[in-house]
## 1
Amino acid sequence: MNWKTILVHLDSSRRCETRTQFALDIARRFDAHVIGLYLVCQDLVHHMFEPAETLQRKAYEAQRRTSLDEARAAFEHATQLAGVNAEWRAPTGSVLDAATLHGRHADVIVLGQDDPDDPEAFIARHFVEDVVMGSGRPVLLVPRAGDIKSLGENVVIAWDDSREAARAVADALPVLRRARFVEIMTVERHRDEEAPAGIEISAYLERQGVRASFSSTPRVRGENTGLTLMERANSMHADMFIAGAYAHSRGLERVLGGVTRTLLETSTLPVLLSH
């Protein structure tokens, strides 16, 4: 099974072009259809102006229509140059409802990492994680900075035997089967385990035609596991990171931190997240 429908989120942010090219590169690899889903923050439309400020509201809405038209023209031009079959969608209503609904009819959803330095990148609070949790589809998160020169050549899997990690590995199989190098990384929970986490998933991948190496490191009290995994992935020059999202309570991770929270906020390479 390959990814045949790629949904990419479009807006007016600085990284929209990078995100579009990223999705088109995936589509060319899998001969896939691309859906460009244009969604921008809508809260300001309803709360920025008083009812009497009609002229200001109309000017603001006209600017938003201009931004939409420019985004559509850029997307359609990029897809034509890439020779990829694609379509544009700009639904109204709740941005989260639209993203999750349209995302459920795709094989993978391409989203951008939050960027506090770009106001145009803000869609809604917890937008990415809510799409991960609600869509039932894997999300490929594009980092907020840096060039993406390759994808899926050198892949790292964060493995902890959880349901979410198993789902992520299965969702990523189209990429894993084409990868040159695959590394399964674990952080040991208990030193007295009979078999380290990761041995069985290595065998599973082998039967799927994916040869993966395996490495494990002991958990160090006080260390951020997500940062540890990301640092090791970067040291291996990985170009993709695969992880289950929110194997622990999402509310707890928001308060205390966790691997998912770390990846969402700090990853410098594309991350595939599944829940």
Note: The radius of gyration is 20 Å.
## 2
Amino acid sequence: MIEKKIQSSEGTVYYWTNELDVRNEFAIVFCHGLTANHTLFDKQVQYLSDKYKLITWDWPLHGKSRPYTNFSFTNVNEELLTILEQENINKIVLVGQSAGGYIAQSFIRDYEDKVTGFIGIGTTPFGKGYYRSSELFWIKHYSTIARLYPFSYYCKAGAKAITLTEEARKSMYNTLLHLGKQDMLTATWAVYDEFLKVEDEVQFNCPVLITYGEYDKTGYIKKYCNNWAEKRGYPLKVIRNASHNANYDNHEEFNELLDNFVQSIL
């Protein structure tokens, strides 16, 4: 994967992509979760880089894409659109893990003509109709609560809580440690503040696949995903032997699901 970047008035955003032998205006775009970075999808890159055009990125306030001012879903959408234009990509499948699913849903809402498919990994839907007020309260105050913990403890406990395998846990721990406490707090506050502003559910005009890990104990992820799939009739797949970072924990199963999903669209 080749590291590249774009520049806007809000900051510099970094992304990584592969070069294929043939010109391809289609790509799979991966959106990592909150406080993670592009390395969350290393296993997908290893498996698919010879087959598809891939784009991983550190979306604003994460990884190398710091500092970043005036964070909003709208601004993040514009950054991704600029990346696609720079790479001459016209159609994408979006893969969003956890809060990366919010980034994906927001982009689909604004630029649905660019998106031919969406896969959610342990993510939840836009639209306050899915959530109780008590659940939204904890989302609103997450960064305030996280501030109370020593950061070394937060990194260890946080990585352990969302992974099942030692390799996935080590990767997430290093990502959190590199982010730092202040930037972790900044990112969580900014993203959840944006999420809480969204009133309406996204209407997808493309194929959708909802997934989560068999042992995902993050919040009410399983309940939200099951309700989402049941309400809208979207297919749902539970990834075996995996937690919240299911695409890393059981990358073999997820990679096969992703490949089959993309092939059904192309």
Note: The longest strand covers residues 2-8.
